[in-house]
């Protein structure tokens, strides 16, 4: 589904990713773990096409398409979703308006019909309920004055509505208390499907108790230095990243 | 939500100034240039009473002794006032009694303008369309006013000001120039001398005008100045909501538009005046476009009267415009809600004056400036309280949004108070359209232009909400179109 080959990325003049290889098949959840500054968020941003994240070399195949050739919104319409570590505030644009505009923009790009307002409202209402999001909150400008937990729930609501093929969760657990973490994780787990892939970027093992990965990759200094099964998370929790730091050099 | 969708579609559909076409209509002109004889010509064309001619001649004399103002933060090639036509009118085929007799080519122009559909239907005479009275001003004359008779049943007078001068001379004489005197400023004096048409509204005591009134201004002829004059009077306890729209063809030369609008609100009356200004802004290099030098002022003459200005300014090469309120009546209220969008080489110097004269008067200013391209956008405002204006209050909020790195935003607020009990508040912010916000919106599926449109519409939302519904949608589209190509 998502296949990254020898990806080298620099931001400004600094090289962050240094020949990264990764393959996430459909239906699997992979976690990227690593110390601060390893390039975890850079990977997510690069895949989403953030400006100023320059790809020096490498290739990314997304369902048979050259992901790096696509514009940011084309990647979104092709089914790539990045859940932001710090979701942006959008003043003056009610959450409902924002999400519906995005949904219909994606549909249009894919040559699909727009979702009607009643259908959109019905679907949104049901999903909002499971995420414990109040409908009144959806009438407020997106994320403006929302708590960290509310913002993350809003990210999950958006992914549930946009139904992407591939999810990148960037530090989704940061700023969440244990109850919010459960709500958000349940929301993400509900989206696990045989035709959907996920990449969970996290610093801590905590999130992986809730969203159980099929594979874990350890990212150090711009490269995957080690990959393994779910048990790797526990090992990291016990021993930290120290034993991997040398390998990158 | 539908509006946002429409905005996006419009953005995708349109590439240039939509209203830039030129119509081939048979016209009648006065000779080029300005002199006392031209003033006499215009007055004679309109069969005006003698006092009106004298008023005009006095204004012309006054204008000759005045200098063009240069304090605004705008730069432009000075107008050669002798190289303009001061009167251009579609040749009348016959005296019009109904819409059916309007030149079909003129009707086609209004249809093509894509003015709000309801207006269009009304202009085309579709009986089932919601009631919406329109005065259509084409170059120097009013070509048609709809629903005049229907309005008259409730006592509301809505007609071309040239007609009002003939039919209701006493009413016009009582109020004309009482808010914006001839000597007020250079452009107001010029307007008083040569204005040829505009709208006149009188709402009698206690009457709530049964429908929205609207004037649609169109400059078509070449080298022609447009000088319209609007006078709206809401008598005691009356209410009226009025909207003006403006467009012009794309031409290489600059065209001058120097209008004067006077509003009078007597005791307990309320006037809501909305503008959607979309004059041709000139091309990307700053060639052509309208000089929009307009004087708009309201006199809240009566106690507890209220005037609310709402403007969406997206067009014109140069804008010089300060819709103001004189809060004369005790407890009167003035409001100013403004969206000014500049792109390309556009320059806007716009704002308001709230002059508190009466006791416990209140005013509110919400200004949203959006600048892109190499444009310059200035908010200039004055809030003042007279010694007798005890207990008066003002709240001002000026927000500027910058798109790109080559535009400019300026805020020039003047605050003066001669009373210890006035309370004035001023808040101002300047922000740049954030790349992070754009990336976030695009990551969710919006193209760059759709993302800009959505974010900017969010920024101006507080003001859009003040517009009548139909026009809010129109304005939202306009804002999006004006900013096309603003992010590199």
From TrEMBL, chain A:
InterPro entries per UniProt: AAA+_ATPase, ABC_transporter-like_ATP-bd, ABC_transporter-like_CS, FeS-cluster_ATPase_SufC, P-loop_NTPase
Keywords: ATP-binding, Nucleotide-binding
Residues of the ABC transporter domain: 2-246
Coiled-coil segments on the chain, per record: none
SMART domains per the UniProt record, alphabetical: AAA
Keyword Chaperone: no
Domain of life according to the entry: Bacteria
Keyword tRNA processing (UniProt): no
Pfam family, one: ABC_tran
PROSITE patterns: ABC_TRANSPORTER_1, ABC_TRANSPORTER_2
Family: Belongs to the ABC transporter superfamily. Ycf16 family.
Entries under NCBIfam families matching the protein: sufC
Protein name: Fe-S cluster assembly ATPase SufC
UniProt organism field: Asticcacaulis aquaticus
Automatic annotation (TrEMBL), chain B:
Ranges where the SUF system FeS cluster assembly SufBD core domain occurs: 217-459
Taxonomy, superkingdom: Bacteria
Pfam families according to UniProt: SUFBD_core (PF01458), SufBD_N (PF19295)
Domain SUF system FeS cluster assembly SufBD N-terminal as annotated: residue spans: 152-208
Family according to the record: Belongs to the iron-sulfur cluster assembly SufBD family.
Name the UniProt record assigns to this protein: Fe-S cluster assembly protein SufB
Origin species: Asticcacaulis aquaticus
Gene designation: sufB
């Amino acid at each position: 589904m998502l296949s990254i080959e020898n990806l080298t990325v620099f931001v400004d003049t600094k090289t962050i990713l240094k020949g990264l290889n990764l393959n996430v098949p459909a239906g699997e959840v992979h976690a990227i773990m690593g110390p601060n500054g390893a390039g975890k968020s850079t990977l997510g941003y690069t895949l989403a096409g953030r400006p100023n994240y320059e790809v020096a070399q490498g290739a990314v195949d997304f369902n048979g398409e050259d992901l790096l050739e696509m514009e940011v919104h084309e990647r979104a319409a092709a089914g790539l979703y990045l859940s932001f570590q710090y979701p942006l505030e959008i003043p003056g644009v009610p959450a409902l308006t924002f999400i519906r505009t995005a949904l219909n923009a994606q549909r249009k790009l894919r040559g699909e019909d727009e979702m009607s307002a009643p259908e959109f409202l019905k679907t949104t209402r049901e999903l909002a309920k499971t995420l414990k999001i109040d409908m009144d909150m959806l009438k407020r400008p997106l994320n403006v004055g929302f708590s960290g937990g509310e913002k993350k729930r809003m990210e999950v609501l958006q992914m549930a509505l946009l139904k992407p093929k591939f999810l990148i969760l960037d530090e989704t657990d940061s700023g969440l208390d244990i109850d919010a973490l459960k709500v958000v994780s349940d929301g993400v787990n509900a989206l696990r499907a045989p035709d959907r892939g996920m990449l969970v970027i996290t610093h801590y093992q905590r999130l992986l108790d809730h969203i159980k990965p099929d594979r874990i990759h350890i990212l150090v200094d711009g490269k995957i230095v080690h990959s393994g099964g779910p048990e790797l998370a526990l090992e990291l929790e016990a021993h930290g990243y120290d034993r991997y730091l040398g390998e990158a050099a | 939500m539908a509006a946002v969708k429409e905005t996006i579609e419009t953005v995708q559909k349109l590439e240039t100034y939509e209203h830039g076409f030129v119509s081939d209509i048979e016209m009648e002109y006065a000779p080029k240039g300005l002199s006392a004889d031209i003033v006499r010509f215009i007055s004679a064309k309109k069969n005006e009473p003698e006092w009106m001619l004298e008023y005009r001649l006095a204004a012309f004399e006054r204008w000759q002794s005045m200098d063009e103002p240069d304090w605004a933060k705008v730069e432009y090639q000075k107008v050669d006032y002798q190289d303009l036509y001061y009167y251009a009118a579609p040749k009348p085929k016959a005296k019009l009694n109904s819409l059916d007799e309007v030149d079909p080519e003129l009707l086609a122009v209004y249809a093509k303008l894509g003015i709000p559909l309801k207006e269009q239907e009304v202009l085309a005479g579709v009986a089932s369309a919601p009631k919406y009275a329109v005065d259509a001003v084409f170059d120097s004359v009013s070509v048609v006013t709809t629903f005049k008779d229907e309005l008259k049943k409730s006592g509301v007078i809505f007609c071309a000001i040239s007609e009002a001068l003939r039919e209701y001379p006493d009413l016009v004489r009582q109020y004309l120039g009482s808010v914006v005197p001839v000597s007020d400023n250079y452009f107001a004096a010029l307007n008083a001398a040569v204005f040829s048409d505009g709208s006149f509204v009188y709402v009698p005591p206690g009457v709530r005008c049964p429908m929205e009134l609207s004037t649609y201004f169109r400059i078509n002829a070449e080298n022609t100045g447009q000088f319209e004059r609007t006078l709206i009077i809401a008598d005691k306890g009356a209410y009226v909501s009025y909207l003006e729209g403006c467009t012009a063809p794309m031409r290489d030369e600059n065209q001058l538009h120097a209008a004067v609008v006077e509003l009078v609100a007597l005791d307990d009356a309320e006037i809501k005046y909305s503008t959607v200004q979309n004059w041709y802004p000139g091309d990307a290099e700053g060639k052509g476009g309208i000089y929009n030098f307009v004087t708009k002022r309201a006199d809240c003459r009566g106690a507890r009267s209220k005037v609310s200005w709402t403007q969406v300014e997206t067009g014109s090469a140069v804008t010089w415009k300060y819709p103001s309120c004189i809060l004369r009546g005790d407890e009167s209220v003035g409001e100013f809600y403004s969206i000014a969008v500049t792109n390309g080489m556009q320059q806007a110097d716009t704002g308001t004056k709230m002059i508190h004269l009466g006791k416990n008067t209140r005013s509110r200013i919400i200004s949203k400036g959006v600048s892109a391209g190499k444009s310059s956008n200035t908010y200039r405002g004055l809030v003042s309280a007279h010694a007798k204006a005890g207990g008066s209050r003002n709240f001002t909020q000026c927000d500027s949004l910058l798109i790109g790195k080559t535009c400019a935003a300026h805020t020039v607020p003047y605050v003066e108070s001669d009373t210890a009990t006035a309370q004035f508040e001023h808040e101002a912010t300047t922000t740049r359209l954030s790349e992070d916000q754009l990336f976030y919106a695009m990551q969710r599926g919006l193209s760059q232009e759709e993302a800009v449109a959505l974010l900017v519409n969010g920024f101006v939302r507080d003001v859009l909400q003040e517009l009548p519904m139909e026009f809010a949608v129109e304005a939202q589209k306009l804002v999006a179109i004006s900013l096309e190509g603003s992010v590199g």
